[in-house]
Amino acid sequence: MKNSRKMTEVEKKSWLVVLFCILAYTSVYVGRKNLSVCLPAMTEDGVISPALGGTVGTCFLIFYACGQLINGCLGDKLHPKVMICTGLMVAGIMNILMGLNSVGILFCVFWAVCGFACSMLWSPIVRAVSLWTTHEISLAAGVHLTTAIPLGTVVCYMICALCMKVSTWRCAFIVCGIILCAASAVVFLCFTSLKEYAKVPEKTTVNKSEKLPFLKVFSIGILFTALAIVFNGILKDGLDLWIPTVLNDRFIPDVSAVSLICSLLPIINISGAYGARFVFRKFKLDELSCCGVMFALSALCLVIVTAFISFTPAKSAGEEVGALGIVTAVFITILFAVSSAAMFGANTMLLTFIPLHYGKVGLASSVSGMLDCFSYAAAAVSNIAVGAVSEGAGWVKVFMLFVGCALVGLLISLAGHGKMKKTTDALDSAD
Fold first, then answer.
1. How far is CA 196 from CA 10, 85, 138, 191, 199, in A?
2. Per residue in 189-245, pLDDT tens?
3. Where would I find the H helices in 101-219?
4. CA angle 121, 126, 129 (to 5 degrees)
5. Residue from 231, 237, 201 nearest 364 by CA
């Protein structure tokens, strides 16, 4: 007989908190993914050069990574509602200013501030989930929140495409900015409606060092976690950036076909988050052990991809692919999708599941911000390095590098899982 138990009032409000957080995080992606869509039109208009466009994007990443550290710490001191809504509002205003601007250097300034504002959301969201949801719902929320990334990305692409069809890239930035400002107001009202429930308990502001020493909180286990997120960031963002180029260069000469395939990858990545949670729960693993499984899966896929790249000549535009070529292209695309999804799953364990343990000692936001900073800093550096390697040594060397990163990530996860489990067990038992 099907279980028809009704949700308690606490469970209902817990799910409302999760829903509000998903709304906020979906919205912020509408205002942070639009530069890549609008950049070609901006270049064509002559308001920005390709080189300056790359600098604008780099400014966003630098300020986003630094902002994760700063806002992660602030997020444990300020109410999550304040952080989330302020971040959305400032990012919205910066988007509007991008649409109104024509001065090159100001694009860098506005987009850097936008990056800092966007960094004000994730860590406070993790803290909100750790504070105001039950343990079971918080684990489910950690996965559900990841759906906001592809959803926000797809919505952003659709809005920008529509705006540029009926107007210009300026309209796209302004509309995205207005959506973020409106989302800020809506999320503020939503959290305010739960003001009696969504309060910061006094116990989370108490210094618990007497019960849980600092060195036990920030043990060697969190060092292994930070190292794992570095290699996860290299792979997750590296694959996201370079998969379209490799597919087009080696397997699918049709640019439009590659664009269509790659537009589906963010949605497929969601399966990685749910797959990681399934492995985590089914086999009763700790977070770093689960990451080890994800790194191993990614490494296996990338080894096969590397072998195919080694023996497959580059395709030229207009060249007939043939039946065997189509089968190969489909197979390689599946391998890329599985590898990318596996890294997305590992990212969920590292940036959501592990920081949630720190909620009881009031450090969920700080830990999440620190780890996210390492992830984006590694991604920013690796993207430059991979570009240089691909130009100087070719794609085979690039994917050998990716395989190496996956194997190092696997070893780090296996070496650190016991130490991190001791820390999370101590955190979970803290009063």
1. 12, 19, 20, 10, 6
2. 999 999 888 787 665 444 444 445 544 556 788 999 999 999 999 999 888 878 887
3. 104-118, 122-132, 135-144, 148-166, 169-192, 214-217
4. 120
5. 201
Q: Which H or E run includes 358?
A: none
pLDDT single digits (tens) 305-340: 999 888 877 665 555 655 666 788 889 889 999 999
**Which SS3 state, helix, strand or coil, does residue 363 take?**
coil
Mean local confidence (pLDDT), 48-70? 88
The two three-digit tokens of residue 44, written as one number: 């064509």
- Name, in order, each residue with C-beta under 8 angstroms of 37's C-beta and a sequence gap of 6 or more: 156, 157, 160, 161, 164, 172
pLDDT at 22: 96
Count of Cβ atoms closer than 10 Å to residue 223 Cβ:
14
Task: Report pTM.
Answer: 0.87
φ/ψ region of 72 (left if φ > 0, alpha if ψ in -120 to 50, else beta) reads alpha
| Stretch 51-63: mean pLDDT | 86
Residue 192, C-beta contacts closer than 8 angstroms, at least 6 positions apart: 81
Rounded to 10°, the helix 50-75/104-118 angle is 30
Integer Cα distance of 345 and 236 in angstroms: 10
Closest CA to 295 of 230, 374, 245, 243: 230
The predicted model gives 180-192 an average pLDDT of: 96
Cα Rg of the chain (Å, integer): 22
Would you list the DSSP string of 192-222? Answer: HTTTTTS---GGGGS--TTTS-HHHHT-HHH
Interhelix angle 287-311/255-282, rounded to 10 degrees, is: 150
Q: Angle between the 122-132 and 364-392 helix axes, to the nearest 10 degrees?
A: 140
pLDDT, tens digit, for every residue of 98-138?
Answer: 999 999 899 999 999 999 999 999 999 999 999 999 888 99
Name, in order, each residue with C-beta under 8 angstroms of 186's C-beta and a sequence gap of 6 or more: 23
Closest Cα to residue 266, out of 245, 291, 243, 295? 243
The residue with greater pLDDT, 271 or 387, is: 271
> What does the chain come to in residues?
431
